[in-house]
Write a structure and sequence with these properties.
This protein has 159 residues and is an alpha+beta fold. It contains 3 helices and 8 strands, in the order E-E-E-H-E-E-E-E-H-E-H. The chain is 33% helix and 37% strand. One of its GO terms (molecular function) is structural constituent of ribosome.
């Protein structure tokens, strides 16, 4: 009988890069991995790592993602506010959507939103074509919605 390992987080590989460096002794080949980790209940993180083989790069990226997890604020199955986030050239727009509309976003942004547990969100990449930049900007936008919600609640308490 095999005991099946229960996974705490859902991991998704966003990108694997082959990195080649010219040295005196020949080519040095390494691999870079970008991973998105989420529990589908409001926690999501991103990890980037490099190693001499793909398996170690992915393992190290998962460890990095666990260190960089954020908790997001959800209103039902969507986000509480519209938000625009920009990191480098990557610019991302996230909007709440009515229940049942699903995740309307492309590529790396969809991976982050699905891993975080959101089900009804509209997302648009407004600038930049980098997958790493899109993932970072999306996570920053989700973090901004949480911060805005906390500020609004604090203002209500203070009057």
């Amino acid at each position: 009988m095999y005991q099946q390992e229960i996974r705490e987080f859902n991991e998704t590989v966003v990108q694997i890069n082959r990195i080649s460096k010219k040295t005196k002794g020949g080519n040095q080949i390494r691999f870079g991995a970008v991973i998105v980790l989420g529990d589908k209940k409001g926690k999501v993180g991103m990890g980037i790592s490099k190693a001499h083989d793909v398996r170690n790069a992915i393992r190290k990226a998962i460890e990095d993602a666990k260190k960089n997890m954020i908790v997001i604020t959800m209103r039902g199955t969507t986000i509480p506010y519209s938000v625009i986030s920009k990191i480098g050239a990557s610019k991302v727009l996230l909007k709440p959507a009515p229940p049942g509309s699903g995740i309307i976003a492309g590529g790396p942004m969809r991976v982050v939103l699905e891993s975080s547990g959101l089900r009804d969100v509209v997302g648009k990449t407004l600038g930049g074509s980098s997958k790493i930049g899109s993932v970072r900007a999306t996570i920053q936008a989700l973090q901004m919605t949480s911060e805005l919600k906390e500020k609004k609640e604090a203002m209500k308490k203070n009057g």
